[in-house]
Amino acid sequence: DLRQAYDFPNIVGRSPSMQRLFARMRGAAAHDSSVLIVGETGTGKELVARAIHYQSPRAEQPFVPVNCGAIPRDLFESELFGHRKGAFTGASRDTIGLVRAADRGTLFLDEVAEMPPEIQVRLLRVLQERCVRRVGDVTEAPVDVRFLAATGIPAEQAIREGRLRRDLFYRIGVITIDLPPLRERPEDIPFLAQHFLERCNRVFPNKVDAVDPRVFDLLTTYPWPGNVRELGNVIESIFAMGASGRVLPEDLPEHLRQRPASRGDAPAATGPEALADAERRAVEQALRAARGNKSRAASILGISRTRLYNKLRLYGIDDGESGK
Fold first, then answer.
1. Under a CB-based contact definition with an 8 Å cutoff, are residues 104 and 59 in contact?
2. Which pTM was predicted?
3. Measured between alpha carbons, how far is 96 from 190 in angstroms, rounded to an integer?
4. Rounded to 5, what percent of the chain is helix, strand, coil?
């Protein structure tokens, strides 16, 4: 069931960039090399990692995901490598750690650039020697683990900023997979929207059986700063607000409806400047819809508060009012 659930056809995309992605995923699944997955928030990095694992020879073994940004710094070493009872205050029992928990399977290190530098040094040794030593232990234990990692920023940027060791990058990025943001593959949006509609139809009591073409116009011209996750949230919100039968533009969240589109309109401007301008407008509209509440605006966009604050700094938006 897991192998079928994370088969590549369940990652929706017909654009050329997605076809290239599927080709790299097939190659990565067939081998045992370490993989670094690079993509913006909401592009589906963990989904890709799970798909690679469940289509690999290790599919019957554990897939252990680790969010490196969620582990307290002082607990990182113990969580990852385990510890012996009495190794430090509070160590009341032996633990094997997440690396050994993934033995014979796959360890997925999400947001690997958030890992403390001293832990990156220890991880590098595990990658090189295929052995792990618990905190408080004097001997090493062999491990057979495949490592997948992900980062939300380009690897070279993480290295320049001192967040990712270059030697670790060379070890863990034997195969690099770049996930395209949704704004760069608008032709996939109708298929993704249909995918989420079908999924919500199975969960919600109210059912949708048709979509007004104007809805797809609005969806395909929006820049999607939160990527696929944001699109999924928008479709779920349509159901949560009680829409049924035929979805109309007024069923969409306000920040999407404020961007009227028509199939007869002139083609929109393209290129980095046009995309940045569209993304800025989307952030401003979400802030207006949230009446300046940044937590709510981040939820509307399908991104984290940290990413929203990064966008505010990037575009010079100093507070909850648009245009500043």
1. no
2. 0.77
3. 46
4. 50, 10, 40
Q: Which of 60, 50, 53, 48 is nearest to 22 (CA)?
A: 48
Around 260, how many Cα atoms within 13 Å sit in the side-chain half-sphere? 2
Pair of tokens at residue 103: 């033995």
What is the three-class DSSP state of 136?
Answer: coil
pLDDT tens, 273-317? 555 666 777 787 777 767 788 887 777 676 777 778 878 887 888
Helix (H, G, I), strand (E, B) or coil at 228: helix
Hey, which residues does 296 pair with through a beta bridge?
none
Q: Rounded to whole angstroms, how far apart are CA atoms 54 and 5?
A: 9
Q: How far is Cα 235 from Cα 229, in angstroms, rounded to an integer? A: 10
- Smallest Cα–Cα separation from 294: which of 319, 322, 257, 259? 319
Instruction: Extract the runs of DSSP E, i.e. beta strands, from 93-244.
Output: 106-110, 131-132, 141-142, 146-151, 175-178, 208-211
Specify the 3-state DSSP secondary structure of 83.
strand
Task: List alpha helices for 40-142, DSSP H.
Answer: 45-54, 76-81, 97-101, 117-129
Q: What pLDDT, on the 0 to 100 scale, is given for residue 179?
A: 95
Question: Residues near 143 by Cβ (< 8 Å), separated by ≥ 6?
Answer: 99, 100, 102, 103, 126, 130, 131, 132
Contact by Cβ (8 Å): 166, 124: no
Please count the other Cβ atoms lying within 10 Å of the Cβ belonging to residue 23: 11
The alpha carbon of residue 321 and the mean position of all alpha carbons in its chain are separated, in whole angstroms, by 28
For residue 312, which amino acid is it? Answer: L
Return the structure tokens found at 34: 């370490």
